[in-house]
Amino acid sequence: MQGVINLFQDRQTAGRELAEKLLKYKGEDLLVLGVPRGGVIVAAEVAKALAAPLDVIISRKIGAPFNPELALGAVAPDGTVLFDERLLDLLRLGRDDLQEEVADQLEEIRRRLKLYRGGREPSRYDGRTVIVVDDGIATGFTLRAALRWLRRHDPGKLVLAVPVAPPEVVERLRQDVDEVVCLETPEEFYTVGQFYKDFRQITDEEVVAALAHNYRHSDSQ
Question: Could you give the 3-state DSSP secondary structure of residue 111?
Fold first, then answer.
């Protein structure tokens, strides 16, 4: 396979590099939101560098009935669904055919939010500079549902920050945010993991620990 690989040692390194491009926001009324699981590890480094609180933002893929890996849509935390209408038409599926899958994924969002936050209240978004961080973006479809949901909560400024994404995906997502900060936009893009030397699976426990550490640190300031 041709193309640039191993641009980043690991998610922590990528997070520190990303934070350098976001220092202009330090001192504002900030909130950093990580996309679980791997994006939270990147976001934790950003939040640390900016002395900002850290929380999670979750949307979930709506898979096809015959192939769960094929994304036909994405559901946001409030139950709003963004469908790929072209694919639905192509496969002759209606929205009603996916309602059970939507309900299952919405329940999974709620389960994860409860687990990750450990009883803490959801963050306030209105009027704040909100920075959404992931470890990379392949298609951006699921993330778009989260960004559109977040926009309805009236952040003062909405920023998407990622270490790596395809250039065409970055351009598409610009319409959903006020600013995109992306360190690398390689033309040859297969998976996010190809750009990391260490791209191991992140556990729920690591996400919980990162959020709890930030909460304790923020609370003591």
Answer: helix
3-class secondary structure, 217: helix
| Residues of the domain holding 166 | 11-58+117-220
Question: Tokens representing 111?
Answer: 């389960």
Asked whether the predicted pLDDT for residue 220 surpasses 60, the reply is no
Whole-number Å distance between alpha carbons of 101 and 91 = 16
Mean pLDDT of the chain: 93
Show the CA angle centred on residue 51, arms to residues 48 and 52, nearest 5°: 95
Angle between helices 99-117 and 204-220 in degrees, nearest 10? 50
pLDDT tens digits along 108-128: 999 999 999 998 999 999 999
Buried b (16+ CB within 10 A) or exposed e, 103-124: eebbeebeebbeebbeeeeebe
Amino acid (1-letter code) at residue 35? V
CATH of the domain at 176: 3.40.50.2020
